[in-house]
């Protein structure tokens, strides 16, 4: 399947295409599971009620968290974004949530302990410990803030709560990866 090269775009008219290889009836059953229905309805309140494009991502996450009745918010952050994460924690606290910010360096492991091929003796990022700590805190929802590529993958694989990315790391473009696409378009 390559939806970009599709010329009919039949799925945008509620008609399935002939390239799909999933069981539609099974997906509908999965969407109707109570835990999925709740998420779909909470997200729809942000879009379907004329609010699409009126809230920042941060505001959307707060509204979504309130609708879902989350109380305990985990913040898995890169130590280089501690200032931003502190502000995020304050904003969530002021919105009535309890926050659990956990730095990527939690545990204080040397890089060579995590990656035997590393010659660097500085502290390593530790996404498994971040996930483990937040799992032990029984958070309802976790935000990732600037985790490195690879670390975010491991973190997302091991976190047990619902999670979303609030800030993606892109050091070159001040954490706005879309800028790279704009620059690529200019080169073409």
Description of the structure:
This protein is an alpha/beta fold and 188 residues long. The chain has a domain at 70-171: 3-Layer(aba) Sandwich (Rossmann fold), CATH 3.40.50.2300. Helices cover 41% and strands 12% of the residues. The protein is built from eight helices and four strands. It has helices at residues 24-31, 34-47, 57-67, 82-94, 111-114, 127-136, 151-158, 178-187; strands at residues 72-77, 98-103, 141-145, 162-167. Strands 2-1-3-4 form a four-stranded parallel β-sheet, with helices on both faces. The radius of gyration is 20 Å and the shape is globular. It starts with 23 loop residues before the first helix and ends with a helix. The model has no long low-confidence stretch (mean pLDDT 91).
Short description:
By secondary structure, the chain is of the alpha/beta class. Helix content is 41%, strand content 12%.
Beta-strand portion reads 5-15%
Total beta strand runs: 4
The chain-level structural class is alpha/beta
CATH class bucket of the domain at 70-171 = Alpha Beta
Give keywords.
188 residues; Rossmann fold; 41% helix; 8 helices; globular; single chain
Give the helices and strands, then pairings:
Blueprint: H1 24-31, H2 34-47, H3 57-67, E1 72-77, H4 82-94, E2 98-103, H5 111-114, H6 127-136, E3 141-145, H7 151-158, E4 162-167, H8 178-187
Parallel strand pairs: 1-2, 1-3, 3-4
Helix pairs in contact: 2-3, 6-7
């Amino acid at each position: 399947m390559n939806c970009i090269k599709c010329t009919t775009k039949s799925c945008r008219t509620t008609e399935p295409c002939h390239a799909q290889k999933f069981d539609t009836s099974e997906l509908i059953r999965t969407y109707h599971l109570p835990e999925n229905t709740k998420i779909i309805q909470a997200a729809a309140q942000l879009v379907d009620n004329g609010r699409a494009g009126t809230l920042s991502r941060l505001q959307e996450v707060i509204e979504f968290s309130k609708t879902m009745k989350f109380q305990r918010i985990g913040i898995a952050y890169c130590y280089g974004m501690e200032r931003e994460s502190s502000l995020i924690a304050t904003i969530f606290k002021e919105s009535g949530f309890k926050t659990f910010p956990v730095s990527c360096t939690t545990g204080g492991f040397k890089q060579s302990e995590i990656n035997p091929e590393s010659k660097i003796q500085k502290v390593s990022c530790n996404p498994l410990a971040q996930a483990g700590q937040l799992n032990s805190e029984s958070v309802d929802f976790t935000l990732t803030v600037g985790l490195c590529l690879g670390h975010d993958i491991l973190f997302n694989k091991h976190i047990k709560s619902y999670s979303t990315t609030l800030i993606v790391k892109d050091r070159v473009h001040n954490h706005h990866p879309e800028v790279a696409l704009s620059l690529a378009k200019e080169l073409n």
